[in-house]
Amino acid sequence: MDGLAAAAAEVFGQTSAMRTVGVEEELLLVDVHTGKPRSVASQVIAATNADSGPAAGEGGVEAELQRYMVETQSSVASELADVEDELRKWRRVVASAAREAGAGVAAIATAPLAGTGLISPAPRYQQMADRFGPTAQEVLTCGCHIHVSVESDEEGIAAIDRIRVWLPVILAMSANSPFYDGRDSGYASYRSQLWMRWPSAGPTDTFGTADAYHELVRSMVESGVLLDDGMIYFDARLSRRYPTVEIRVADVCIDLEDTLLVAALCRALVETAAAETARGDPVPQMPTSLLRLAVWRAGHDGVGGVLLDPLSGRPRPWMEVMRDLVSHVHDSLEGLGDIERVEVGIDRLARVGSGATAQRRTFSKTGQLVDVVVEAVRRTAGR
């Protein structure tokens, strides 16, 4: 994330003019002949660092826990169109580097066919493998992380406390991981189930203050279970390195239209939360135990089933809850210039479904998971 860091001081300081956003995408490297993961991350990263140049923007490509993955990061921007252009360029750059390494790159959130769990050689990742054993080996998941600028840690925690009840809706619209270990899992986002195996993952209680948040993080690290504060895997957290709220609940999306829909709604949620805080509006209350059920339902049903209402906790048709989210952040979307993008994106989800829908549609045609992977490679590269 060196490129993001280089731009952060300049752009993240502009929150009074326009709340900025940056996007990280974790991408799966695969063998296009077998559909299985390929451990070529080091070759892909070396090629992108050598060949991408400034045309790909100020973001970057980094290694992840397993050698089957890379993470791309956009630089930060006020306009989502700029983020979109850069993410599209990074996908093309990584796709080209993967082809040179004899592989493909797929924006899917779990591997439909199993690999062997090869851990990246970085010392920290090796420590994670030693401590967490099969969890580190088996949790091969690709997420999409949205960074939204905040003016202070206090503003960030006020936002996290207010957006937490809406994050299952973000998960549902991004759901893109129905297949795992050679079979249909029955979930739209099986990534969300695998991810919960990490001891710090998932929804959180409300914090109230930034001091309370930092005290909890300190206590969690001092427990000796986590290696460091980089293993704070809350669905939304304060970034360790940037003045942002980092929203981590989403699957990586096959289509960038869905990625930008998620980014627009996450930014609008933070903007709306800031306005609520300024007015002194009460924080929405949902017990964390019930919120965990809302996350489970969103991961299971995705779009097309039911979601739990963020206020009542009762099941409702997914589109009704989705429309409630848009209504909740409507003024912010208008102010940020994103309302048309979001309305078009929601209508698209209603017509064609999410990435999970697309994966299952491909499998229903051929009955071959390798075809699911190959189609994801094609769409990720924009072909």
Structure write-up:
The chain is 49% helix and 13% strand. The protein has a single domain (2-380), classed as Creatine Kinase, Chain A, domain 2 (2-Layer Sandwich). 52% of the residues are buried. The chain is of the alpha+beta class. The strands form three sheets. Strands 1, 2, 3, 4, 5, 8 and 9 form a seven-stranded antiparallel beta sheet that branches.
SSE blueprint:
Layout: H1 2-11, E1 21-30, H2 41-51, E2 60-63, E3 69-73, H3 80-100, E4 104-106, H4 123-132, H5 134-138, E5 143-149, H6 153-163, H7 167-174, E6 179-180, E7 183-184, H8 191-195, H9 210-222, E8 236-238, E9 244-251, H10 256-279, H11 288-301, E10 306-308, E11 315-317, H12 318-328, H13 330-336, H14 339-352, H15 355-366, H16 369-380
Antiparallel strand pairs: 1-3, 1-4, 1-5, 2-3, 5-9, 6-7, 8-9, 10-11
Helix pairs in contact: 2-3, 3-10, 6-10, 7-11, 10-13, 10-14, 12-14, 15-16
Q: Can you tag this structure with a few keywords?
A:
alpha+beta; 383 residues; 13% strand; 7-stranded antiparallel beta sheet; two-stranded antiparallel ribbon; single chain; Creatine Kinase, Chain A, domain 2; globular; 16 helices
